[in-house]
Amino acid sequence: MVLLLTEKLPALREGIQRISDGQKITANEFMSLYTVVYNLSCQNDPHDYSKQLYEEYTAQLNTYAHDVVLRHLKQFEHDGETLLVEAIQSFKKFDTFATWIQRIFGYLDRHFVETTRSPNLADVSKNIFETQIYAWAKAVIVEFVVHLATKEREGQQIPDRLIADALKYVGKDSAEALKSAAVSFYDTRSVTWIAQMPRLDYIAKVYQCLDFEKSRNPAIMEVVDQFLTKPYINNILEPVDELFQNMPGNAEHIHRLYYILARVNALAPLTERFHGIISKVVVSTSEEIMDFHDKCISDIVLYFSGDSEFHKQMRNVFNTICQGKAGDFATFCDTVLRKKQSMESFERILKLVAYVQDKDIFAELYRKKLARRLLFDKELDDDQERQALSLLKTQFGSQFVMNMEGMLNDIQMSREKSITMDKMHIHVRILLTEGYNFKFY
């Protein structure tokens, strides 16, 4: 049965008109419209109506652009704010309408577009929007977006998300205008703010401006850096010594200061002061060093967002603190394992062993203490010992613990060889590993 375009087109147009009027269509209604397009496109010539349907699709978009969108927007041509609000809503409605009819005519992309190399349906929709709707409204919208952005920087209230929604459509075309307006605003305000505000208030103001621009248009954050931070770095650094004297009480100020300076690669004064403070702390026992190490890591996260430059300064300090401590750290490990303490303490001390240059000394001392535990500790916890060796292997490599693993295996084999004779239990120690090759006195 041959289907004629003249017979099916009225029903197709009626369905599209309902979508244009903002009415919802059911899934069955959608499938009925899609099927019409499909059937009319699958017939043999001269009844293949793919070209006519492609033209109908384009005509429907043109009609909607002119008769619905532009006719509505031209009512507000001389009212910038209302035009902006209405334009955003109209743009969204056009997107919705275009999406629906792209689906209805979707078979043309696979059939007609591919064979004729015509623009696909999405490109046709985009072209009509850009050349007929957006081109007409662009100048007014860009101008008013810039105006609203300046008003918001000045602290005036504007409708929520109005600028953000507008930038989805005019972002590229408004970029230079928005940047120029931001330059003018911050260039003028910076001189007044730095002269009149206390330093901590100025730092808070710069942080606030960065946060504001990040939430609206992140590209403008560079303007804040250029006009509020870079010319006044020395001024911004004035309260640093005072802030670092009471870091817990100034956590918010220090974090703001770090954030501002990190953006312009000016952290050296902060890292130097941090190094100076932690290098003056006196710690001696393994417990004190561990607690101090944990505190330094916590402070770097709290104040400096875990910045690697501050970790570098911390490593320099602990490289000094931990030299000559191989014996203390080995003894601490031995105490944890003999007393069956939490392995959390073992993991913490290993972080300090990483700073020790003479790790061979630590390994030798650890091996000797392991041998004593294996030979003389009647309540030895094999699982804990193997967990400890696993942690050592993870941090320092398999070569570091090879002999020690062999020592554990010797003890396990020895238990299997223990025998009972005449009610006497004979314990056999088979020590094959070189790890036991040392004197106990």
Describe this structure in a few short sentences.
This protein is an all-alpha fold. It has 20 helices and two strands.
Instruction: Give me the Rg, rounded.
Output: 37 Å
How many H/I helices?
Answer: 20
Q: What is the distance, rounded to the nearest whole angstrom, between the alpha carbons of the first and last residues?
A: 106 Å
Shape: flat
> What's the CATH class of the domain at 5-159, please?
Mainly Alpha
CATH fold group of the domain at 5-159:
5 helical Cullin repeat like
Q: From N to C, what is the helix and strand string?
A: HHHHHHHHHHHHHHHHHHHHEE
Secondary structural class: mainly alpha
* Helix share bin: over 70%
**SS elements, strand count:** 2
What do you see in this structure?
By secondary structure, the chain is mainly alpha-helical. Among the domains are: 5-159, 5 helical Cullin repeat like, CATH 1.20.1310; 175-238; 248-321, no CATH class. Helix content is 75%, strand content 1%. The chain has 20 helices and two strands. It has a two-stranded antiparallel ribbon. Helix 4 (80-104) runs antiparallel to helix 7 (162-196) and helix 14 (286-304) packs antiparallel against helix 15 (308-321). The chain is flat. It starts with a helix and ends in a 15-residue tail after the last strand.
